[in-house]
Design a protein that fits this description.
The chain contains 17 helices and twelve strands. It is α/β, with parallel strands linked by helices. Helix 8 links the parallel strand 5 and strand 6. It is globular. The protein starts with 12 loop residues before the first helix and ends with a helix.
Length: about 425
């Protein structure tokens, strides 16, 4: 049986999240993509092996390519509107492989200040050891601030579409314009938005990264990361000689071989292959299963988050709520522009009573799970200053808007009245501190 081609121009997001990427073989076609749980694949004969190692087309070893992973890569590329996607073992691996594949010693990144702490640590503690420096933009929506930090050796701009943890919204088009004026790529970590809420490539980004462990999988059971490229690398660029010059053995350059896909092909054939952050076929399968309900979950999670944020905003124990869906939020107008289908489900709020209030609040919760994760179908809670952001000084925390009473929520798909009742139990514990 041969399935018809799905036309992305004439199919909605929910239809594509179910059917895009399916690549049926001739003969028997399973309704669900099978798990190819194997380290390697049998080579048909001498000549086929020679061709495979020469062209890279086909399957030889799961570290190079696997049909299960390949199916999910095609699905994500289509959902993001990209030319090609590459899955790796975690979201952090996706960030590291992308940056190490673009930059070398002596070069430079400009990043938004409000990003995931693991990525910030990668910039400050790890890339510096390889001679790669990073400067941070405090106001990520100020193009002049990005422009002021760009140097001749800058090779990438980095930001998040919905920054973790305070739910600000990035003006992607404004930052992309700065990047493209200098011929360098804009890399967007869009984990907290997912392609259901915003597709950064449509707004000028060049590369999109996701921690697929989060909303793509949805169930909190597996790890995975994905890199999606727009396929528009400038083959005449002089900024990335490793992509446009002949290979070490004198072979054609990546740009000569695959044109605008040179960037993602290099990440696949060199970076992922040699550094080896291979995604398990089982994880690829489970992430693919999760993607089939992505829009349903994100829609419900975003609606619940807005309901929770509105309720929290009215509580006297709450100092502030950082959620762009609120009319009072400074990012609300940008949210209406970039996130009309929902403003995501991860945000922070701050209790007036500081760390003691946060401790009492979190310990009193019963429905909302206390753990370090995001994007689960279950609602999650974490105190920021003592966990994910505990490597920052008090001054750095204050500059980032993270106070002693700041708490991050990742809202799930539970019934909203049950979530509010649980939050009310937490606030009752806060009120008890003053009795």
């Amino acid at each position: 049986m041969t399935l018809p081609e799905l036309s992305p121009q004439h199919a909605g997001f929910a239809t594509r999240q179910l059917h895009a990427g399916e690549r049926p073989d001739s003969g028997i076609t399973p309704r669900v993509a099978p798990i190819y749980l194997t380290a390697g694949f049998v080579l048909e004969d001498f000549d086929q092996a020679t061709d495979l190692f020469s062209t890279g087309d086909g399957y030889s070893y799961t570290r190079v390519a696997n049909p299960t992973t390949d199916t999910v890569e095609h699905k994500v590329a289509e959902l993001e509107g990209g030319a090609e996607a590459l899955f790796v073992g975690s979201g952090q691996a996706a960030v590291a492989i992308t940056l190490l594949g673009l930059l070398e010693a002596g070069q430079h990144v400009v990043s938004a200040s409000q990003i995931y702490e693991g990525t910030r640590g990668l910039f400050l503690d790890n890339l510096t050891r390889y001679g790669i420096e990073t400067d941070f933009v405090e106001d990520a929506n100020n193009p002049a601030a990005w422009e002021a930090l760009i140097r001749p050796e800058t090779r990438a701009l980095f930001a998040e579409s919905i920054p973790n943890p305070r739910n600000e919204v990035l003006d992607i088009e404004a930052v992309a314009a700065v990047a493209h004026a200098h011929g360098i790529p804009l890399i967007i970590d869009s984990t907290l938005a997912t392609p259901y809420l915003v597709r950064p490539l449509e707004h000028g980004a060049d590369i999109v990264i996701h921690s697929a462990s989060k909303f793509f999988a949805g169930h909190g059971a597996v790890l995975g990361g994905v890199i999606v490229d727009n396929g528009l690398f400038d083959v005449n660029s002089t900024l990335f000689p490793h992509l446009v010059n002949p290979t070490r053995t004198g072979g054609p350059s990546f740009a000569d071989r695959v044109g605008g896909r040179a960037r993602i092909t290099y990440l696949r054939e060199v970076m992922a292959l040699r550094f080896g952050p291979t995604l398990s076929p089982i994880n690829a399968f489970l992430i693919g299963q999760g993607i089939e309900t992505l829009s349903l979950r994100v829609e419900r999670q975003s609606a619940n988050a807005l309901g929770v944020a509105r309720w929290l905003e009215q509580q006297p124990e709450v100092h502030s709520v950082d959620y762009s869906g609120l009319e009072s939020n400074a990012y609300h107008e940008l949210a209406k522009r970039y996130l009309p289908n929902g403003q995501g489900s991860v945000f922070a709020f701050t209790l007036k009573g500081g760390t003691d209030a946060a401790r009492a609040f979190i310990n009193a919760l019963g429905v909302i799970t206390h753990m370090t994760h995001l994007g689960d179908v279950r609602s999650l809670v974490l105190h920021l200053a003592t966990t994910s952001h505990n490597q920052r000084t008090a001054e750095q925390l204050e500059a980032a808007g993270i106070l002693p009473g700041s708490i991050r929520l990742s809202i799930g798909i539970e019934d909203l009245p049950d979530l509010i009742a649980d939050l009310d139990r937490g606030l009752a514990a806060v009120r008890a501190l003053t009795v």
